């Protein structure tokens, strides 16, 4: 597929998929496949796409599209399954071009604000609270840093790593946990140059072998009093990117508001 400018809204999303042009159809099926895999962490078959998403195409036609997407490197399939799973290239195209914007629900925002009110106004406590509540909201590992604080970093949710259903390799889990325990390494990761306020790094884009099966979403914050830093979420490549980006946007705004 030819890359195009990101717009968060897939082309042709509201039209019947059978009426879309070939490239639009492939994008729509890729978006459905990634969304379904994020929900289930199970290979996605053509019959699943027809049954669960009401696509007005035959299973045979969808199989052909899935095969094309696999040939182009956006999908792959385990040898033991007929279904497909996204590759890192597939996730990158999804987050750049197909991901729809969402907002946290009002009751979630109210819960987050209530958690902040229970904590003292001390900066250390506030940032530790931010890390904990962000981790609970996303079910991933969260990282918070402050510019000028040396190697100080707040990290919560490392236990989520061992709960990911596709992380069954003990060596892989150990490598991720070791990386999370090295503060200087984490700071190098989240202090990557950001061209935008929030950016997503997928797999090998992290340039860190121990966590090259993970994704990292990083956001900047800049408080009115001049305090600045980074807030980030590290999780599997199949993390719910829409929810994580929405959470980071909200937490960044909240930090800037409170500080």
Describe, in plain words, how this protein is organized in 3D.
This protein is 45% helix and 14% strand. It has 259 residues and is an alpha+beta fold. The chain has two domains: 17-98, Winged helix-like DNA-binding domain superfamily/Winged helix DNA-binding domain (Arc Repressor Mutant, subunit A, Orthogonal Bundle), CATH 1.10.10.10; 106-258, GAF domain (Beta-Lactamase, 2-Layer Sandwich), CATH 3.30.450. It has a five-stranded antiparallel sheet, with helices on both faces. The chain has a two-stranded antiparallel ribbon with strand order 1-2. Strand 3 (141-146) and strand 4 form a beta hairpin. It is globular. The model is unreliable at 2-14 (pLDDT under 50).
List keywords for this structure.
single chain; 259 residues; alpha+beta; 2 domains; 5-stranded antiparallel β-sheet; 7 strands
Structural class: alpha+beta
| Cα-to-Cα separation, first versus last residue | 44 Å
Principal-axes geometry comes out as globular
**Quaternary arrangement of the chains shown?**
single chain
- The total tally of domains equals 2
What percentage of amino acids are in beta strands? 5-15%
What is the count of helical runs?
9
The first-level CATH class of the largest domain is given as Alpha Beta
Please give the order of strands in the largest beta sheet. Answer: 4-3-7-6-5
The value of Rg in angstroms is: 19 Å
């Amino acid at each position: 597929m030819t890359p195009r400018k990101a717009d968060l809204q897939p082309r042709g999303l509201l039209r019947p998929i059978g009426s879309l042009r070939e490239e639009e159809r492939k994008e729509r099926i890729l978006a459905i496949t990634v969304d379904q895999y994020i929900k289930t962490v199970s290979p996605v078959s053509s019959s699943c796409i027809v049954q669960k998403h009401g696509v007005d195409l035959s299973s045979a036609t969808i199989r052909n599209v899935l095969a094309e997407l696999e040939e182009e490197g956006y999908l792959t399939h385990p040898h033991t399954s007929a279904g497909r799973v996204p590759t890192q290239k597939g996730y990158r195209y999804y987050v750049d071009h197909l991901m729809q914007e969402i907002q946290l629900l009002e009751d979630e925002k109210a819960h987050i604000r209530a958690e902040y009110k229970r904590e003292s106004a001390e900066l250390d406590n506030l940032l530790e609270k931010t890390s904990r509540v962000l981790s609970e909201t996303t079910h991933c590992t969260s990282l918070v840093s402050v510019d000028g604080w040396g190697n100080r970093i707040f990290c919560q949710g490392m236990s989520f790593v061992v709960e990911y259903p596709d992380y069954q390799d003990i060596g892989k889990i150990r490598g991720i946990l070791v990386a999370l325990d090295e503060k200087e390494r984490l700071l190098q990761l989240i202090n990557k140059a950001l061209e935008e306020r929030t950016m997503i790094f997928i797999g090998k884009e992290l340039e860190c072998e121990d966590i090259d099966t993970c994704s990292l979403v990083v956001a900047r914050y800049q408080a009115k009093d001049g305090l600045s830093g980074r807030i980030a979420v590290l999780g599997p490549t199949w993390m719910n990117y829409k929810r994580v980006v929405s959470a980071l946007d909200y937490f960044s705004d909240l930090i800037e508001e409170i500080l």
